[in-house]
Write a structure and sequence with these properties.
By secondary structure, this protein is mainly beta. Helices cover about 10% and strands about 45% of the residues.
């Protein structure tokens, strides 16, 4: 087990730089991380969720139940259709859709790969993790994984939730997988019904949701044996499914509409609090709120961030 919050405190200076570079940057009085994108399985739609204004608006109606969602480097929406076996890309500028993959066996979670030229998708019923090289070349990376679900990169290392969801309280594991060969390099101890997975740069930890255990695990990516109950005494997240991070201290969790209460929950790593946010009808998954797979930021934001880094450095030196 690891000391979660001492690990987090050791990374506060890094988090300051991340805040300037990314989703925590405030523009016009609003922080970008307040807006999330969520899939509604029962509603066959993707919703835009404002956790501050407490509003939910329909972003895109999908032909079939959308399970997982990411954005590519151009800002196109990519989502899995759970029951048709398709992976679809939607261009919001032309309002056109393109099918990237078909006939997958219950395509579940996705991750955009480093460089942005490809993505991975897990086949829950097929036991595979597949690579889609854009525009639409599909190859199988790894097989025999049980019910693979959440996928995450911590930079160059790939992690996945593998094993069988119905395998009891130790039926699933977090595995490090070689992104070239598909071989399993390391696994965590057996954990309860893992679903979503995200890497949080603020804490340097992986976070995984236990959909039947009603908890969130934190896992050290450098030693997968180091696992902690991240929600602990803070409260219960009923039926946690999708999970994402804003990279500056907040973990957002989707409580499954079919098992939980269909709310977004916010785990704040700075204040050590767990808060129930928006109700989203049919809620299942959340798009990445920072890093690869999140909605790209305008170029002006990136330029502002680059210009602000020297200021951070000077401020840090004065305060030492």
């Amino acid at each position: 087990m690891i000391n979660l919050y001492s690990s987090i405190n050791a990374r506060k200076q890094t988090a300051l730089a991340v805040a300037v570079l990314g989703v925590g940057l405030v523009i016009g009085g609003r922080a970008q991380a307040e807006t999330l994108y969520a899939t509604s399985i029962s509603g066959s739609q993707i919703d835009q969720v404002d956790t501050v204004a407490n509003t939910v608006t329909t972003y895109l109606n999908t032909p079939s139940a959308a399970d997982s969602i990411i954005f590519d480097s151009a800002g196109n929406v990519i989502y899995t259709e759970l029951y048709t076996g398709d992976v679809v890309r939607y261009d919001p500028n032309t309002t056109t859709s393109t099918t990237l993959a078909t006939s997958l066996s219950t395509p579940a979670d996705m991750v955009l790969e480093p460089g942005g030229n490809s993505m991975l998708v897990s086949e829950f019923s097929g036991g595979n993790i597949d690579r889609i090289t854009f525009p639409n070349t599909v190859t199988t990376l790894s097989t025999g994984l049980g019910n693979p679900e959440g996928l995450a990169y911590d930079g160059t290392r790939l992690f996945a939730n593998i094993g069988y969801r119905g395998g009891g309280p130790t039926g699933k594991q977090v595995a490090e997988i070689d992104p070239t060969t598909g071989n399993i390099l390391a696994v965590s101890p057996g954990l309860n019904s893992l679903d979503g997975l995200t890497y949080d740069p603020y804490s340097g930890l992986l976070y995984a949701s236990s959909v039947f255990g009603n908890i969130i695990y934190s896992i050290d990516p450098n030693n997968l044996n180091n696992v902690q109950n991240a929600t602990g005494t803070l409260g219960i997240v009923p039926g946690p499914d999708g999970i994402t991070t804003d990279g500056v201290g907040d973990i957002f969790i989707a409580s499954s509409y079919s098992i939980g209460d269909s709310h977004v929950y916010q785990l704040n790593l700075i204040s050590h609090t767990l808060t129930q946010d928006n109700f989203v009808s049919g809620l299942d998954d959340l798009a990445p709120a920072s890093g690869a797979g999140s909605i790209p930021e305008p170029a002006s934001i990136a330029l502002l961030a680059i210009g602000a880094i020297p200021l951070l450095g000077r401020r840090s030196r004065r305060s030492v």
